[in-house]
Design goal:
The complex is a heterodimer. Chain A is 31% helix and 16% strand. Chain A is an alpha/beta fold. In chain A, the strands form five sheets. Chain A has a five-stranded parallel sheet. Chain B has one domain: Alpha-Beta Barrel (Aconitase, domain 4). The longest helix of chain B has 9 residues, at 88-96.
């Protein structure tokens, strides 16, 4: 029987098979490190007199709690806990010989944005990072896993980790979107999670396949794979094709023997035609609408043209789902039956590892060019990396956003997870291009609606959600 | 292990409500624990006792990879979380750092145990006994490797060749 792409990568990285088809010790090709989930791991190494086994395969940056305001100024409170985490990472990287893109580096940015941009993310490789959205790198045909701090320490010390083999899950995306500027990769992945649920992918590695995936650019594929974790999957990946190989060619860290690698990837990195997946789901995208989340997990999502469902409608008779929806509506201060287009917003956040790459900013800028944001809205753009920021500025996008009264910030995770000062106040309602609408995620009492960059930009202009298919986005 | 249950009768308890992002900068675990479950249940810290268990629905611990989540629960006194299913990163973090036991339960266990019931967990027999209601349930057994890591006392004490 044939093998899936995931199984091929898995088998080529086994160091020790614990038991056939059971947990194995897996070799890790790339380890990405950031300031929040690494301090205790380095401390553990020190306490046990261990070294980093492969500093050359380990790369660090600071993204989660860095300020997104002017970096020529010092961080005001040098004793603040954020400042301490940043300084701790600098010291750890120096002590253990790890390459660090620090706060002033032109390569600094969200770890999942800079990996691909620098050519560090490679097809067929295993990648881990102490961050759940590591699944992003799967867009390049890598097996990319989010891990916790204990495993970070284990990988630092051994370049391996123990892993139970996940099951392969095929998600087919079929058809063609009628308006690909208005119905985006974000709308595809939110539609998938709406259908399979936030636990639909638990214990699996998703492979996204089909015409609807092949049509996507690399940056759009990253948006899809990024949110695999929101469906509970261990990872998500897409078989590499010529778009993948072109994207990674001539990057700063692209390997010297790249073309010969590409030759072998072309042959090896695909799912065999007779391979078997343990689970399957198909989404037809010809007629899908732009999506807006209304609740407190990414599965609580509906079409922009819908009204807010009642807990009964949402839950299909499942008591826990119903209670969850009731709590969500209470937290979100929304009434069933309200039209999504009538929901007024206070804040707009265009950013995060889901949607803060150059294409996202280009698409959003088309909506706001020559316009001003609504007088009751406060809006910000936080580019995914300093490189994205620079490229956008070379195209004049910063001016379009600033002229529309958006704030134009420095790169980082920012308001996606509310670790730095970029947070919502209680009761503030935000159209956000990030990945999680959990209670309090963007600040205690903040109400998050997950949307695409185009929808976020349109909501900023109109002050409420609109059907962006009716706008001229060409 | 014997203790009382704090039941959250809902699915999808995420790591952002277990420990909100703003507290990920705290390195003192005792202080971290004072914010455990703050996003969902502001009374948690005042009511939790050493040796208590949490009982919840599907997909417990979904979201972020922050190990601060099982750490905050563990340092609040929670010895095990019983749930219909777990998000995998939370599950591994709980076991790898030997913070708490993530125990997968079946629907009858979930329905049978009420908030504040006293229960006793016997991992060697895969059994959960409800002392308050005098009922016994079977827990789903740990997989081989998870059982070994738990028995060793965490990932760094586990040696593959020890058996």
């Amino acid at each position: 029987m044939g093998k899936t792409l995931f199984e091929k990568i898995w088998e080529s990285h086994i160091v020790v098979v614990e038991k056939q088809n059971n947990p194995s010790l897996i070799y890790i090709d790339r380890h990405l490190v950031h300031e929040v989930t690494s301090p205790q791991a380095f401390e553990g190494l020190r306490m046990n007199n261990r070294k980093v086994r492969r500093p050359d395969l380990t790369i660090a940056t600071m993204d989660h709690n860095v300020p997104t305001t002017d970096r020529s100024l010092p961080i005001l409170d040098q004793t603040s806990s954020s400042s301490v985490q940043i300084k701790t990472l600098e010291k750890n990287c120096k002590d253990f010989g790890i390459k660090l893109f620090d706060i002033n580096s032109p390569n600094q940015g969200i770890v999942h944005v800079i990996g691909p941009q620098l050519g560090i993310t490679l097809p067929g490789s295993t990648i881990v990072c102490g961050d759940s959205h590591t699944s992003t790198h799967g867009a390049f045909g890598a097996l990319a896993l989010g891990i916790g701090t204990s495993d970070v320490e284990h990988v630092l010390a051994s370049q391996t980790m123990w892993l139970e083999k996940p099951k392969p899950f095929e998600i087919r995306v079929e058809g063609k979107r009628k308006n690909p500027h208005a119905v985006t990769a974000k709308d595809i992945i939110l539609s998938i999670i709406k259908n399979i649920g936030t636990g639909g992918g638990t214990g699996t590695v998703i492979e996204y396949r089909g015409e609807g995936i092949a049509d996507l650019s690399m940056e759009q594929r990253m948006t899809i794979c990024n949110m695999s974790i929101e469906a509970g999957a261990r990872a998500g990946l897409i078989a590499p094709d010529e778009k993948t190989f072109d994207y990674l060619r001539d990057r700063e860290y692209t390997p010297k023997n790249y073309e010969s690698l590409v030759d072998s990837w072309r042959d090896d990195l695909k799912t065999d035609s007779d391979a078997k997946f343990e689970k399957e789901f198909t989404l037809h995208i010809d007629d899908i609408a732009p999506q807006v989340s209304w609740g407190t997990n990414p599965g609580m999502t509906c079409n922009v043209t819908d009204s807010i469902p009642s807990p009964g409608e949402f839950s299909n008779g499942d008591e826990n789902q119903k209670r969850g929806a009731e709590k969500a509506l209470e937290y979100m201060a929304l009434e069933p039956g309200t039209l999504v287009e009538d929901i007024k917003i206070d804040r707009v956040f265009i950013g995060s590892c889901t949607n803060a790459r150059l294409e996202d900013l280009i698409e959003a800028s088309k909506v706001i060019r020559g316009q001003k944001i609504s007088s009751h809205v406060q809006a910000m753009v936080v580019p995914g990396s300093q490189m994205v920021k620079k490229q956008a500025e070379e195209m004049g996008l910063d001016k379009i956003f600033i002229d529309a009264n958006f704030e134009w910030r420095e790169a980082g995770c920012s308001m996606c997870l509310g670790m730095n000062p970029d947070i919502l106040s209680p009761g503030e309602r935000c159209a956000s291009t990030s990945n999680r609408n959990f209670e309090g995620r963007q600040g205690a009492g903040g109400q998050t609606h997950l949307v695409s960059p185009v929808m976020a930009a349109a909501a900023a202009i109109h002050g409420h959600f609109v059907d962006v298919r009716k706008m001229d986005l060409s | 292990m014997k203790g009382n249950v704090i039941k959250y009768a809902r699915d999808n308890i995420d790591t952002d409500v277990i420990i909100p992002g703003t507290y990920l900068k705290i390195h003192d675990y005792a202080e971290l624990a004072t914010h455990a479950m703050e996003g969902l249940d502001p009374d948690f810290h005042s009511k939790v006792k050493e040796g208590d268990f949490i009982l919840s629905g599907k997909n417990f611990g979904c979201g972020s990879s922050r190990e601060h989540a099982p750490i905050a629960l563990s340092h609040s006194g929670i010895k095990a979380v019983l749930a219909l299913s777990f998000a995998r990163i939370f599950y591994r973090n709980s076991v790898d750092g030997a913070f708490l036991l993530p125990i997968e339960i079946k629907q009858d266990t979930y329905d049978g145990i009420s908030d504040s019931d006293e229960i006793e967990i016997d991992v060697s027999k895969n059994e959960i006994k409800n002392i308050t209601k005098n009922q016994t349930y079977k827990m789903k057994p740990f997989s081989e490797i998870i059982g070994k890591i738990i028995a060793a006392g965490g990932l760094f004490k586990y040696k593959p060749d020890q058996d």
